[in-house]
UniProtKB/TrEMBL annotation:
It is found in: Chromosome, Centromere, Kinetochore; Cytoplasm, Cytoskeleton, Spindle; Nucleus. Residues 82-97 have a biased composition (Basic and acidic residues). This is DASH complex subunit DAD1. Coiled coil: none annotated. Its main location: nucleus. One of its GO terms (cellular component) is DASH complex. Keywords: Cell cycle, Cell division, Centromere, Chromosome, Cytoplasm, Cytoskeleton, Kinetochore, Microtubule, Mitosis, Nucleus. Belongs to the DASH complex DAD1 family. Residues 68-108 are annotated as: Disordered. GO terms for biological process: cell division. GO terms for molecular function: microtubule plus-end binding.
Length: 108
């Protein structure tokens, strides 16, 4: 090959090289958009976590309340037993309701 032939190749890229450069540019643009979307997702997740952390004290308070209400009556300081009678009455009614429901279902 002559030196002038190699100069023309270096100054004017082939169709393949032009297409490759265009595809590389498109890929770069696409990767930039992906990066921007990931950054936006990260910011959204951080804000969600921040909002969730704001409820930590409320959750702790409800947890304490739940633990307190879940204790047996003698541990709550009500040793008279009257409150326990109400719970027993509710449990009896609940059991009767469940029996009626199961009988109704079996009849169908």
């Amino acid at each position: 090959m002559s030196p002038s032939g190699s100069k023309s190749r270096t100054t004017t890229p082939s169709a393949f090289e032009q297409q490759r450069e265009e595809l590389v540019r498109e890929i770069a643009v696409g990767m930039e958009q992906v990066l921007q979307n990931i950054n936006q997702l990260n910011r959204n997740l951080e804000s969600i976590i921040t909002v969730g952390n704001e409820f930590g004290s409320v959750e702790a308070l409800w947890s304490q309340f739940e633990n307190f209400m879940g204790r047996p009556e003698d541990e709550n300081g009500n040793g008279d037993g009257k409150a326990n009678e109400g719970h027993e009455e509710n449990n009896k009614r609940r059991g009767q309701d469940e029996e009626r429901e199961s009988t109704f279902i079996q009849e169908r």
